[in-house]
Amino acid sequence: MAQFSATKLSLSIEAAVLRELNALFDNEWQHKPFAVRSSAVGEDAGQMETFLGVIGISEVCKAIVKCWSSSFAYQAVEYRRFKTDFNSSKHFSFLKIGTFSVYHNIVDISRNHGQVVAADMGVCIQEMVQADTAGVLFTRDPVSGNPGIMTINVSYGLGEAVVSGMTEPDTIYINRTYNNKLSIASKVTGSKTTKIVMKESGGVQELEVADESSECCLSDDVALELGKISILVEQSFSDSRDIEFAVKDKQIFLLQARPITSINIESEFELIHEQDAPVLTDDEMLTTANTGEVMPMAMTPLTCDILTNTLSQIRQILLADVAGIRSPSYTITCFGGNFCRHSFLNLLSGFYFLNEWTSPFWTADDTRTVTEISLFGVRLNNANINNLIEARYKNTRAPFWRKLYMQLNLIKDVFIGKSYCEKAFQLCEAVNDNAYSTSSSIERVYEEIERKIIVYFKIWDYHILTSTSSALASYVMTNQLMGGHASVVTSEVMSDVAMLLSTCTDVLSADVPASLAKLALAIIEDGQDEYFQSLTPEAGTEWLKSDKNGRLKNMFTDFMHMHGHRCIREVPKISRNFICNLFVVFNLLSI
Question: In this prediction, what percent of the chain has a pLDDT beyond 90?
Answer without folding.
Answer: 18
